[in-house]
Specification:
- The chain is α+β, with helices and mostly antiparallel strands.
- Helix content is 69%, strand content 16%.
- The protein has a single domain, classed as Arc Repressor Mutant, subunit A (Orthogonal Bundle), CATH 1.10.10.10.
Length: 89
């Protein structure tokens, strides 16, 4: 009985931890998307390299924010000279 209770508690804690991780990732994605949106709002569009420089984001965070903005249909992307180019819609 005690083992079952311990397993249930451990399972509940793991589920809560996963929910917190997802919530924190969503918050980070939203904040990152805001930085990218602001940089794009001040231009006619930027390459990924230019966005990284303007926002001071590392690759994984840059692409997390770009994905958020794409999902929200706020930006369009294309390839220019072999590099990702993004602009606001």
């Amino acid at each position: 009985m005690q083992t079952l209770r311990s397993e249930l508690i451990a399972s509940s804690l793991k589920r809560m931890s996963n929910q917190n991780s997802r919530r924190m990732l969503k918050e980070k994605a939203g904040e990152t998307a805001g930085k990218i949106w602001n940089a794009l709002n001040e231009s006619e569009g930027l390459t990924a390299k230019q966005l990284k420089k303007a926002t001071k984001l590392v690759d994984k965070d840059l692409y997390l924010g770009l994905g958020w903005l794409l999902r929200e249909d706020k930006i369009s992307t294309s390839e220019v000279d072999g590099e990702l180019f993004a602009k606001l819609k």
